[in-house]
Write a structure and sequence with these properties.
By secondary structure, the chain is mostly helical. The protein is built from 4 helices and 2 strands, in the order αββααα. The protein has one domain. One of its GO terms (cellular component) is ribonucleoprotein complex. It holds the Pfam family Ribosomal_S7.
């Protein structure tokens, strides 16, 4: 009898939690991301309601039309910027792995959500 009550309580707690389906690298949530500067708010895509992605590898053609790169997730733009210079061209999986390891290091050192910390670092 008590086991069924505990199971029902656990199910209620899971239903009460606000849950977003999309987590970056299946680990970090987009819910806590806040952009403090309103002038760049339209150009940084990092919130839960603006194109969230699981991994920063969408293979989108964001340069085909003017201002479309504003719809590219900010983590993917960081990943693409790591692919500069000849020896790194086309190695997006390596760049994604570097971003993932960097976010895990930030999480271990600060015990904070590294996606939120990354936004703070980008705006400084």
């Amino acid at each position: 009898m008590e086991a069924s009550v505990v199971a029902v309580d656990n199910q209620k707690q899971q239903q009460e939690k606000p849950h977003t389906d999309v987590l970056l690298f299946n680990r970090w949530s987009y819910d806590d991301v806040q952009i403090g500067d309103i002038s760049v708010e339209d150009y940084i895509t990092a919130t839960a309601n603006k194109h969230p992605t699981y991994t920063p590898h969408t293979a989108g053609r964001y340069q085909a039309k003017r201002f479309r790169k504003a719809q590219c997730p900010i983590v993917e733009r960081l990943t693409n910027s790591l692919m500069m210079h000849g020896r790194n061209n086309g190695k997006k999986l390596m760049a994604v792995r570097i971003i993932k390891h960097a976010m895990e290091i930030i999480h271990l050192l600060t015990d904070l959500d590294s996606l939120v910390d990354q936004e703070k670092m980008q705006l400084v």
